[in-house]
Design goal:
InterPro entries: DUF4440 (IPR027843), NTF2-like_dom_sf (IPR032710)
Largest sheet: 7 strands, mixed
Distance between the termini: 25 Å
CATH class of one domain: Alpha Beta
Number of strands: 7
Strand content: 35-45%
CATH architecture of one domain: Roll
Number of helices: 4
Order of helices and strands: HHHEEHEEEEE
Protein name: Nuclear transport factor 2 family protein
Length: about 150
């Protein structure tokens, strides 16, 4: 299933809080915790945790790298290009969570990437969008848009 139209529609909503859940809601806390959990694994090259959070049918859109639809290819790319080379930080206060009724949620915000290989390289915030699907008692990442 492709959710790109939903993602793009939400991505162009003006950042005014329209449609997003309250930051003190259970959904916001859950998605915020999941974002932290995923990116802790990302920053420490914990590919096992990352793999456990990716859906088998994941689609990953990267403005510079193209589209990936094979989970193992995404993990291989992270291992080759990210592990011990890049650290991600969420821009404080930028996370938005939008509920998708009877499905899950869209998380979007701004983050920065610190180049561990070039400590003086400037890092500017970039936008990300992640679709989280709620399946039974667990959450999984089904779509990602990463823009730089």
């Amino acid at each position: 299933m492709n959710y790109l139209k939903i993602i793009l529609l939400i991505a162009f909503i003006p950042i005014t809080g329209v449609g997003q859940v309250a930051q003190d809601s259970e959904l916001f806390k859950t998605i915020s915790d999941l974002d932290q959990h995923y990116f802790d694994a990302y920053n420490t090259c914990d590919l096992k945790t990352q793999a456990s959070l990716y859906a088998e049918d994941i689609t990953f859109y990267h403005d510079k790298g193209g589209v990936s639809t094979v989970k193992q290819d995404i993990l291989n790319s992270i291992e080759k290009n990210i592990c011990n080379k890049v650290t991600r930080t969420l821009v404080t206060g930028s996370l938005e969570v939008h509920e998708i009724k009877n499905f899950g949620a869209v998380a979007m915000g701004l983050h920065t990437f610190f180049n561990n290989q070039e400590p003086n390289a400037p890092s500017k915030p970039s936008k990300f969008i992640m679709i989280w699907r709620h399946v039974d008692t667990r959450w999984e990442i089904v779509e990602v848009i990463s823009l730089h």
